């Protein structure tokens, strides 16, 4: 096999087809004009010498929240340069910060790095009050306009001390604004009422994209990223896209698949990229079949990751359902599954939990969409019971179980039963 699949590549700019913001940032977001205008409104007080409003930006994953805020921050930098204003924008990705303490140490680090360069250590061992003072001191030292963008802030859960303090800064030397970004609607509802009223002065909601919007987003990526693909006319919409490497149905199917699930632009872009890569390897036009194949591959990976992250007890409960499924009892009740669970638990010399606990584990798996749960009567006069079936491919589920060393033996038994 040669190093590169074809002398006639389909993808000419890989960065444009990357689903995350790291390698390529679109320069405009026509689907988000309303939301961008709302971000403008947050910044508007700066025009007359005031401080920006605080805001909470929220909506499901992959809806362009981060990229929209980043674009507006770039515009703010340009505006400030033209006006001769000092502006500092700190975009802090708070993923992994599970408390206000961690958010504050991250902010101290990021603010100090502005003057001292990269590599500043996070402060350790200080109380939260001292950390917030450090943050305010750094901001005071910087002066001018300071905007703190706290992306993926939901990790802090109900520990919203940092947001409370940051949204009420006591600084005379700087105009400070805080923008929190989250894809967790519940996070917003759980915030303390004071934080809701200060941070949530402005709330900007990003609705999920529909299939037409996703088609246009994909068309723009294709226009920049694929060979022999460009727009016929000034408007860069799907209708105006002309391509010698994409079949007509490819983008509509990609957009439809992504919009059916969550309307997630990141997922749509990834699907298009993977489909193009498969077609490129086979030296074919990118067709519906490649999109379907790429979709299956993505789904498989997602299910695998989901199962891998489950606890051993849940995996054993799942093994119980799989056994029934592959031996011709596709909709077992809790009692049947519990018996199988006990046998598998013995197999690995594991701790055995009660039937009630196993039922709870099965319900958790149903919430994760790994199982489907139904509730029906067990027969005349015998009350109602829960029944479970597998919502994912059994082979994939066994493979994922076998990746857990403790469950290798259980996976082998299941493979043998399925033969
Ligand atoms: N309207 C759009 N036009 C072009 N690309 C877009 C658009 N919306 C989102 N994207 C792209 O989709 C990907 C995800 O966007 P982004 O990270 O901004 O989403 P998000 O809403 O912040 O997601 P999350 O909540 O998961 O962090 C990025 O590659 C981004 O460039």
Automatic annotation (TrEMBL):
Superkingdom of origin: Archaea
Residue ranges of domain AAA+ ATPase in the record: 51-210
Keywords assigned: ATP-binding, Cell cycle, Cell division, DNA replication, Nucleotide-binding
Residue intervals of the Cdc6 C-terminal domain: 318-401
Biological process annotations from GO: cell division; DNA replication
InterPro entries from the UniProt entry: AAA+_ATPase, AAA_16, Cdc6_C, Cdc6_lid, ORC1/CDC6, Orc1/Cdc6_arc, P-loop_NTPase, WH-like_DNA-bd_sf
Pfam families found in the cross-reference section: AAA_16 (PF13191), Cdc6_lid (PF22703), WHD_Cdc6 (PF09079)
Keyword Cell division: yes
Binding site for ATP: 209, 221
Single Gene Ontology MF annotation: ATP binding
Function: Involved in regulation of DNA replication.
Entry similarity comment: Belongs to the CDC6/cdc18 family.
The protein, known as: ORC1-type DNA replication protein
Taxonomy of the source species: Archaea, Methanobacteriati, Methanobacteriota, Stenosarchaea group, Halobacteria
